[in-house]
Amino acid sequence: MSNNAHRRDLVDERTGDTFYQPHPYGLVTPVTTADGSAPSSQRGRTWEDLTASGRVLRPAGGAR
Q1: CA angle at residue 56 from 35 to 41, to 5 degrees?
Q2: Residue 50: CB partners within 8 Å, gap ≥ 6?
Q3: Mean pLDDT along residues 37-44
């Protein structure tokens, strides 16, 4: 996979919560909280909304 390929699985590096973004520039959907439970809302949000609320999203699995 090239470094520029879209990574669908994301993690918030501050909280450990996981997210899924099926399409580049599409909505980001919460998957689980850091403890493995379901998030309170599974509504998709824009990347901008999540980063404005303090989320620091990175590709899951430690890749940067």
Answers
A1: 50
A2: 19, 28, 57
A3: 94
Q: Cα separation of 25 and 47, whole Å?
A: 8
Please state, in angstroms and rounded to a whole number, the distance separating the CA atoms of residues 49 and 5.
Answer: 22
**Of the candidates 62, 52, 53, 54, the residue with the CA atom closest to the CA atom of residue 10:** 62
> 18: which 2 tokens?
């996981």
The residue assigned the tokens 């901008």 is 48
User: Rounded to an integer, what distance in angstroms lies between the CA atom of residue 20 and that of residue 22?
Assistant: 6
The pTM of the full predicted model, rounded to 2 decimals, is 0.83
Q: What is the CA radius of gyration of the chain?
A: 11
Strands (E), the chain: 9-12, 18-20, 29-32, 57-59
